[in-house]
Amino acid sequence: MKEKQKGPPLKIERLGIGYSIDVKHCYLPFVVTDVCPTCGDEVALDLRSSHISYPNIGDGSWLYFYHYREDTGDEHEWSRRVVLDVTLVEEPA
């Protein structure tokens, strides 16, 4: 059983905007969908099985898309920038 929180609420202050975390691969519960700039197909990137390399929090990180067209045998690759953000809150009692 968890012990109940005691005392006044936590004071949480963010110091700075962009910072890196010491993680090579970051897996997240998101699916990001983009349109292939070459062929126009919609492509989904599942970040539960794909990853963000060397993520930066509050600053830009790269997503790398790969798309294989079975009908033509063409391979398409491109990248997009996203911003990861973290929210720190006190756990409810």
Task: Tell me the layout of helices and strands.
Layout: E1 19-20, E2 25-26, E3 31-35, E4 42-46, E5 52-53, E6 56-57, E7 60-68, E8 75-83
Strand fraction band?
35-45%
Could you give the count of β-strands?
A: 8
Q: Which strand order does the major sheet show?
A: 1-6
Mean pLDDT: 89
Residues in helices, as a percent range: under 10%
Question: Whole-number radius of gyration?
Answer: 19 Å
Main β-sheet description: 2 strands, antiparallel
Task: Note down, in words, how this protein is organized.
The protein has no helices and eight strands. With 93 residues, it is mainly beta. The strands form four sheets. Strands 1-6 form a two-stranded antiparallel sheet. It has a two-stranded antiparallel sheet with strand order 2-5. A two-stranded antiparallel ribbon has the order 3-4. 1% of the residues are buried. The chain has a domain at 24-82. β3 and β4 (42-46) form a beta hairpin.
Question: Summary?
Answer:
With 93 residues, the protein is an all-beta fold.
List its salient traits:
93 residues; mainly beta; two-stranded antiparallel sheet; two-stranded antiparallel ribbon; 8 strands; 39% strand
